[in-house]
Amino acid sequence: MKYNQLGNTDMKVSEVSFGTWAIGGDWGDVSKEDAIQSLHHAIDQGVNFFDTADVYGAGRSETLIGQVLKERSEDVYVATKFGRRDNFADLSNYTYDKVKAYCENSLRNLGTEAIDLYQIHCPSTEVLTDQGVFEVLETLKQEGKIRYYGVSVETDDQGKFVLDNTKASSLQVIVNLLRQKPVKEMIAQAAKQNVGILARVPLASGLLTGKYTKDSQFPENDHRNYNRDGAAFNVGETFGGLPFEKAIDLVDQLKWIADDRGTMADAALKWILQQEGVTTVIPGFKSIAQIDANLKAADTKPFTEKELVTLSEFYWSQVHDHIRGDY
């Protein structure tokens, strides 16, 4: 396993790490036993960083991680997020008292004294530009409740604002072969400023596994069903913002990336790992098999410079104009 420095922090994190939204239960049912076994297995393979949030299963993901960490002696870092338990656009939910309460709830769930990386969970632009929440985070850092803080952003403009105006140590960004826009400016700027990048939605909600068709169905409690058109939260979080049927057509044109690279998923994750400035990629998982499948990306054959140019041209000419929502 390769480990990368996470921005200006003291953490070196596995280049393939994992997000835990799926084991919270918002991607269909996952048993507690399967989730715990998968977390242990990931750590056994050298993974030392997990991303979660207080709303993933109403705290379920945090609690599962906390239970596993009690049984491990390794240094394992946890990034969690806040701001989505209440109205994410209401400034009154980002006061010191509110954020401290969110933080202490996550600390209880995780069973730890300090959160390694505390992230604002996809806030509105107004919350960011007000900047009051960053003063709160600085206070929590001084109090020892959090070690570092960052922001999970929805748009390039939000990311650039954070980079230009705050002391955030990281940005969590939607980036994948079907969502390449952040690479050119936001991620490049972050690299220059020594700000870590967590690449989320790396497989475009599973599209880039290549296993879905236009007839594929998803469970009622899977966001790929109920948020397909942005009914529950930002449409960009589901299939990268692409209409599902159009996305299937686009993925069909990308199946060549798997040639000599195992699977489409391996290739798609490898592409992200080749992007300068990306610290770690955080695919989700629901089983040990998915952990193992995603870890293969690190050893997958890299793309040539010519192939990288081809993929960039494909994005800008065929994909970009179909992405919905502010991004």
Automatic annotation (TrEMBL):
Location of the NADP-dependent oxidoreductase domain: 16-313
Any Pfam family: Aldo_ket_red
InterPro entries, per the entry: AKR, AKR2_Oxidoreductase, NAD(P)_OxRdtase_dom_sf, NADP_OxRdtase_dom
CDD domains noted in UniProt: AKR_AKR11C1 (cd19086)
Domain of life: Bacteria
SUPFAM superfamilies per the UniProt record, alphabetical: NAD(P)-linked oxidoreductase
Official protein name in the record: Aryl-alcohol dehydrogenase-like predicted oxidoreductase
